[in-house]
Amino acid sequence: MVRYISFDLDGTLANNDFDYMVWNEEIPRLYARIHRVPYEDARTRVFAEYYKVMHLEKPARMSDISYWFERLKLGDFTQLVEDMKRNNFVYEDTKETLQYLHDKGYKLIVVSNADEKFLKAKTEAEGISEFFEHRFSAPTSFGHAKKNRDVFEKVLATIGVAPHEMVHVGDDHHYDVEVPGTLGISGYFLVRGNKPMAPDANNIPSLRELKDKF
Known about the structure:
Layout: E1 4-7, H1 17-35, H2 39-57, H3 65-71, H4 78-84, H5 94-103, E2 107-112, H6 116-125, E3 132-137, H7 138-142, H8 149-159, E4 166-170, H9 173-181, E5 186-190, E6 202-204
Parallel strand pairs: 1-2, 1-4, 2-3, 4-5, 5-6
Helix pairs in contact: 1-2, 4-6
C-alpha cells in the first residue's frame, strides 16, 4: 500500500520562473539598491561574479544561495523570499492536487536537485511548504548533485518505508522514473504541454490525473 507520494519540484509543481527571477532580476536589483549603483551596472557586476565562481573558482558552496548573499554583501536572503511571494510560480493543478492527496491521508515529500536553503525558500515563496512532511535536497541532504539511486535509497531509509510504499512524480524521465525504478519505486512521468510521452512509463499530462490514481 502506498503511504508516501514524492514530488520533484521544478517543472513538476512549479515552473522555472523562480530561479530565473532570483538570479537574473532580484539579486541584481538588490545589489543595485544596497550598493547604490545603477541597475545595469549591478547586473554587469553580479553576472561577472557568477562567471568567475561557476567557471573559474568552482567552490563547493556555489549552489548555496546564502553563499551568494555573503559574497555579494546582500545581507539576509529571507527578505527576498518574502518579496518573491508576490508572484505565482506553481502550476494551476499543483495546490488542488496536493490538497486532495493530503486530505486523503497520504504523506507528501519533495525530492529535488536544489540546494536545501533554496528548496526551502522556493516552497515557502510558492505557498506549498505546508503540504510536505519532508523536503530532501540531493546536494545538501545526501551530497549528490543530482537525484541518483543512492538519494532515493536514503530517502526510503529516512522515512522508513519499503519501495512499494512510495511513488515518485516528476517531469524528467531518467531522474524521476528510471532512477527510482531501479529500487522498485513506481513513478509517474509528468508530460506537460507538447513534451513527448515515454513508452515505458506511467505518463500523466497533468497532476490532476493523480486524483484518479489514489
